[in-house]
Design brief:
Length: 332
């Protein structure tokens, strides 16, 4: 059990595809990581939505979530997140209502506003629909909430729709964000908020969380604000080994910034590619004790109620070992 002075830990995974391996290998790796997180006592296991990226096999969160939830026991399983402008609200509500019916009390619906891809791919996802635009995000979010049991929201004719015939429970809906926009939306609707600090380190996380808490309007499920931040971490036996294992994450971040996308490279290959070791592919890399000290400082600085651990590595076994090292020192 987590000590009372430490917040729960959760896991974010992208089902990353490594060089010389297939998407099927990546998805099996995600299942293995999820099982490990479940056994270690992590709170949640979320999977991302990205499209048309050689390094990411997690394109359809509800599909992957169904497999993860079926092969784990108690950990909450969710989306980190569903990019709502890519999907019709009723479809999202149906998918997550079905997941909740299959795994009551274990499903999270994390919702984001970004496309999760480039503009051309986003256009391919949305087709010619005039209803799938970023401008309609607030309306579509409210529709999803209403369809999933939020009686505060009047959505007009959509109120006659039933995502599942006889719901006994509903998934927990989260607002995700990497700016103050998501924080303000979450506050206005009384939703828990997850700040994507693992890739938004250049923004002011404290300012976003301050806006969230100051503007929070209580909701039936969350009478008080509940905030989580994500951080990218790798824990290894030594600091040098952790920085070596973080090499693939530095290469991936550089490839994203240059548009030269490819699968995840091995640590050996990354070491020979000449990427500056100060390049921030992973925020916290070191021994478990060093990583936990950094995470403790992040909690103290942000005042969050939960942390979500991201991390790009070449081998899923490396991720499992890292999570186990952190869990032991954290006291899960």
């Amino acid at each position: 059990m987590t000590p009372p002075d430490r917040v729960p830990l959760s896991v974010l995974d992208l089902a990353t595809v490594r060089e010389g391996h297939s998407s099927a290998d990546a998805l099996r790796g995600t299942i293995d990581i999820a099982r490990t997180a479940d056994e270690l006592g992590y709170q949640r296991f979320w999977v991302a939505e990205h499209h048309n990226m050689p390094a990411v096999a997690s394109t359809a969160p509800p599909v992957l979530m169904a497999s993860v939830a079926a092969q784990t026991a108690t950990i909450r399983v969710g989306s980190g997140g569903v990019m709502l402008p890519n999907h019709m609200p009723f479809v999202v509500a149906e998918q997550f209502a079905l997941l909740e019916a299959l795994h009551p009390g274990r499903i999270d619906l994390g919702i984001g506003r970004a496309p999760g891809t480039d503009q051309a791919t986003a256009a391919a996802l949305r087709g010619v629909s005039p209803y799938l635009t970023v401008e309609q995000f607030p309306e579509h979010l409210r529709t999803v909430l209403a369809l999933l049991g939020d009686d505060r929201i009047d959505v007009g004719p959509a109120a006659r729709l039933r995502p599942t015939p006889v719901a006994e429970s509903y998934p927990e809906v989260w607002m995700l964000g990497s700016s103050t926009y998501g924080a303000q939306v979450a506050a206005a609707l009384g939703l828990p908020f997850c700040y994507a600090y693992h890739f938004a380190t250049g923004t002011d996380v404290a300012a976003a969380l301050q806006l969230y808490r100051a503007g929070f309007q209580p909701s039936p499920r969350f009478p008080e604000p509940y905030a989580m931040v994500s951080a990218s971490v790798i824990a290894a036996e030594t600091t040098d080994e952790a920085h070596y294992l973080a090499g693939p994450s530095r290469v991936m971040l550089q490839s994203l910034r240059t548009g030269r996308l490819g699968p995840i490279v091995s640590p050996e290959r990354a070491a020979g590619m000449g990427v500056d070791e100060t390049f921030p592919g992973t925020q916290y890399a070191g021994t478990a004790e060093e990583v936990v000290a950094d995470l403790d400082a992040l909690v103290a600085r942000t005042g969050v109620q939960e942390l979500m651990l991201a991390g790009t590595v070449f081998d899923p076994a490396t991720r499992q070992e890292s999570l186990a090292r952190i869990a032991k020192v954290w006291g899960l």
